[in-house]
Amino acid sequence: MTESSAVEIEIATRRLMAALDSLESAVERRRDADRDENELAARIQALGADRSRLADELDGALVKARKLERTNREISDRLDSAIVTIRSVLDTGEDG
Fold first, then answer.
1. Does the model's pTM come out above 0.85?
2. Short name of one Pfam family for this protein (predicted)?
């Protein structure tokens, strides 16, 4: 083997090592990207579950609010009726 052949082999070996290093770096970047993508997908799934839970809680709160409004109206009507009755009794008592 001549000196120039040895130099060419050394250059080719260095190029191969550089290419392998580049490939290893690219694989590591891809692994990181895949990991980030999986983490993002998990976060999106968790957010979707939270959204569903919050929507259910909101629906429940709306039902309770409607019941409270209905009850409030009924109590108000009863109070108005009681006030009218009390006034009529008081008016009758003043006339007698």
1. no
2. DUF4164
